[in-house]
């Protein structure tokens, strides 16, 4: 069974005002050496990472444990932890003290300065770079659906953006972000990466910000398209669906089935629509490339990966998780409902703090 691991970026917020606070260094100073808590681009953020897990139940336990540990450490530093992909309240972010981050700010200016946005990255094991690239080529049409499911960033600088995932728009400012064309082989993938680096535009290979890429450090594909999810159950659902996508794609490659030939233009439109609508409107259906209700697209994703999920043992969990998510709404829907009920973004942040470690 393929292992799967999760990296989540989370906000540190003031327990009274709900505004982000630049205290990541203080939080991390008290963590033990074996902790997976880490800094991020801005001092208002923390990152947690699970170990590779084959059983989704073990992954769920670890996501919850690390969220709880991070929340505990944050409280000791006088803050709270919030799984929000952007801050609902106004903020002027502070870059972390790190030579590479300082170089990012020098080169990319406001793009780096304003990049206080929290994503969820999912690693799924592959047997080789050849299999990994074959997977990347075949999961491209479905990545916008993962974004729609995870969308959790409707507010930016105290205003409703009209987007479900405004993080995806902020992230899209980086020159190497977004979907890519099919690579065809591992050799072509690595050649393309070297060609991009040779332009001198990117600092290093760590700035290969494709929606999905080969990991530089692990034998995995890394799917990077999602917002951080408000509730840990949705993170686990996202991981299960992503592993199902990877396994389905690998089986199609071994069976000699070609990838969808959709170009970057179509994929960018589908990604924009997913970030705009989330689960509240229509999405671009990856089988027809025409508009369809979000629920129909989500159910098509489940159908697409159901055989792999059944073989892995995650099908029942995925069905239950999707029913719960579609009934409750993703993070963007929850945040807007909270604002409509309370009329106060501080109250929205406070409830999201509670749900983050629930």
TrEMBL record:
Nucleotide-binding as UniProt keyword: yes
Coiled-coil segments: none
Pfam families: GCS2
GO MF annotations, alphabetized: ATP binding; glutamate-cysteine ligase activity
Catalytic activity from the UniProt record: L-cysteine + L-glutamate + ATP = gamma-L-glutamyl-L-cysteine + ADP + phosphate + H(+)
Job of this protein: ATP-dependent carboxylate-amine ligase which exhibits weak glutamate--cysteine ligase activity.
Protein name per the record: Putative glutamate--cysteine ligase 2
Biological source species: Streptomyces rimosus subsp. rimosus (strain ATCC 10970 / DSM 40260 / JCM 4667 / NRRL 2234)
């Amino acid at each position: 069974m393929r292992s799967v691991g999760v990296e989540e970026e989370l906000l540190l917020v003031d327990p009274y005002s709900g505004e982000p606070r630049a205290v990541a260094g203080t939080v991390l100073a008290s963590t033990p050496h074996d902790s997976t808590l880490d800094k991020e681009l801005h001092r208002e953020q923390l990152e947690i990472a699970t170990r590779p897990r084959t059983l989704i139940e073990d992954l769920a336990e670890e996501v919850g444990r690390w969220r709880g540990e991070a929340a505990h450490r944050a409280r000791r530093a006088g803050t709270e932890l919030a799984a929000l992909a952007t801050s609902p309240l106004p903020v002027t972010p502070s870059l972390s003290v790190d030579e590479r981050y300082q170089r990012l700010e020098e080169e990319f200016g406001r793009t780096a300065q304003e990049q206080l946005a929290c994503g969820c990255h999912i690693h799924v094991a592959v047997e080789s770079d050849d299999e990994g690239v074959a997977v990347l080529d075949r999961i491209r049409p479905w990545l916008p659906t993962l974004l729609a499911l995870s969308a959790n960033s409707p507010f930016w600088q105290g205003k409703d953006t009209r987007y479900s995932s405004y993080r995806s728009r902020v992230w899209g400012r980086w020159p190497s972000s977004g979907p890519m064309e099919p690579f065809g082989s591992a050799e072509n993938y690595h050649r393309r990466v070297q060609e991009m680096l040779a332009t001198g535009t990117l600092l290093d290979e760590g700035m290969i910000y494709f929606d999905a890429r080969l990991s530089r450090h692990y034998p995995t594909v890394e799917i990077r398209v999602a917002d951080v999810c408000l509730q840990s159950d949705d993170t686990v659902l996202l991981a299960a669906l992503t592993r199902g996508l990877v396994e389905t794609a690998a089986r199609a490659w071994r069976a000699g089935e070609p990838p969808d030939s959709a170009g970057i233009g179509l994929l960018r439109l589908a990604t924009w629509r997913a970030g705009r609508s989330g689960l509240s409107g229509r999405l671009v259906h990856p089988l027809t490339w025409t508009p369809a209700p979000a629920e129909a697209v989500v159910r098509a994703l489940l159908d697409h990966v159901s055989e792999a999920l059944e073989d892995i043992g995650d099908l029942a969990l995925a069905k239950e998780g999707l029913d719960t998510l579609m009934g409750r709404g993703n993070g963007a829907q929850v945040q807007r409902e909270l604002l409509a009920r309370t009329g106060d973004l501080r109250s929205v942040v406070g409830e999201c703090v509670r749900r983050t470690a629930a």
